[in-house]
């Protein structure tokens, strides 16, 4: 298995992977897409730039590959040289999974993510988590309680 950044011209491959597995996730146009491959794509994720770091979305591992540390390797590779913090939103039941990937509950979020989380929480139980956040990233007015 290898984990690599997906060239922009191949973004459709990640969208196809998501659809193939019945996922409503998609490759976003504004960030980077990362994939894990073992002959074919077996996992993917998106990293979108935000103030102070990036927002991780659409982490998905093909069912036959789950429980084999594919997500861990993909996330670690994608974030290896990423500057700043990485935030994500997840269902509370997934918090232990993300804690195993070095994420912790987030208290401070960039304003764009704080407002997005507030909108999403109107219809879904979601929490914010962060990896690699320092106090220099947060500033007054850019926080939300989770």
TrEMBL record:
InterPro entries noted in UniProt = Acyl_CoA_acyltransferase, GNAT_dom
Q: Which CDD domains does the protein's record reference?
A: NAT_SF (cd04301)
Using the record's annotation, list all stretches that form the N-acetyltransferase domain: 1-127
Which Pfam families does this UniProt record tie to the protein?
Acetyltransf_7
| One term of GO molecular function | acyltransferase activity, transferring groups other than amino-acyl groups
Q: Which Gene3D superfamilies match?
A: 3.40.630.30
The molecule here is called: GNAT family N-acetyltransferase
């Amino acid at each position: 298995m290898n984990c690599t950044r997906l060239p922009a011209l191949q973004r459709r491959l990640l969208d196809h992977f998501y659809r193939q597995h019945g996922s409503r996730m998609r490759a976003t146009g504004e960030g980077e897409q990362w994939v894990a491959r073992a002959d074919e794509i077996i996992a993917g994720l998106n990293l979108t730039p935000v103030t102070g770091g990036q927002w991780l979305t659409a982490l998905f591992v093909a069912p036959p590959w789950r429980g084999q540390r594919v997500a861990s390797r993909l996330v670690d590779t994608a974030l290896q040289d990423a500057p700043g913090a990485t935030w994500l939103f997840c269902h509370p039941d997934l918090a232990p999974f993300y804690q195993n990937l070095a994420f912790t509950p987030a208290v401070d979020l960039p304003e764009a993510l704080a407002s997005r989380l507030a909108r999403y929480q109107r219809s879904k139980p979601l929490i914010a988590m962060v990896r690699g956040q320092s106090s220099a990233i947060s500033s007054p007015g850019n926080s939300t309680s989770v």
